[in-house]
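Entry 14. Structure prediction run on the chain below.
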Amino acid sequence: MAYPQDKPSQTAIPPSVITNPPRQWGPDAPPTIYSDPDVIVLDAALRPSLVGNAPIRRLWTGGIWAEGPAWSGQGQYLVFSDVVGDVQRRYLWEDGRVTTFRSPSYNSNGNSFDFQGRQLSAQHFFRRVVRWEHDGSVTVIADAFEGKPLNSPNDLVPHPDGSIWFTDPPYGDTLSEGHPDLAAGMGNPAGRFNARLGSQLAGLVGGRQRELPTNTYRWDPSGRLDVVVGGDQLPYPNGLCFSPDYKTLHVVSTGKFAGDPGPDGKHAVFAFDVDGAKVSAMRLFTDMFVDGVRCGPDGIRADVNGNLWISSSAPLGYAGVVIYSPQGKLLGRIRLPEICANVAFGGPKRNILFMCASQSLYALQVQTQGAAPG
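Output returned:
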């Protein structure tokens, strides 16, 4: 006697950021099947860097524009900025709480920790780079170049020789991320904006108006500040990082905001050879197009294998993080439900990829480690 066969079942599609309905986030969300459907491997070379049974987790939400994650190995916490919210927050490893760290933060953007464990911050409002000393005092690393005020330092990285390298686009020259130029400045030529409304210190501490190109700088421990990449060569520099051996510098060039004078940025990532305090041999690392979609870069970090993990500002399905080999080959993507501004490796083993994405902080455990402190 023959029995009727059950119809073969169709494989279900696990919820992801692009399914309908999309995956849910937070402690009450349903579990995610392994491997995470929003971690996409495009080249087998990426697989050794991933953990098959690790999901993307949303650790916190409630910001406006999350940026500048940096890991304190000694303190066992992640500091990150809400640039528009004018506050620094801290994710505590021991219990997962997110607390207010510094308020106001003076619209801090990029953060890092140097090789002595001191926090470095780029403050948009005061248009300067500062270092927080172990005793709690603050040292101004740089606020001017050749007598002219900086634009608004954005991201920064330490070097083993004690130097600090940072980018200086003008994004803090706005009502939302700092303060506009005083009247007649490049960012306020008609003088319609009152920079001191709600910002009594505008122009009293730090720069009053833009006077410099959008350069990338190297600060030497002696106090000397030099341009390593001029704004005429690479306009609107943003995120930057070194290769693990510090022989290559990668710099992101983003775009100008509406009405800003001068040439637009490149919307791409470039590489330079590093020779002491200078760089050379500028070349395109990646144009950041994936499947014909421009995945606008912002923050960038390298792992110990030299792979680059780059934040992606793109439409849903391409927003998140893109991963490239040291040779510039696309290895994979991490899809997030929000555009991602910056990333950092942290955790006690430095094997957690933290992702600041718009209003939220996300994390993914990986099978590699960050190449640099912070």
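The CA atoms of residues 71 and 212 lie 31 Å apart.
Filed with the rest of this week's runs.
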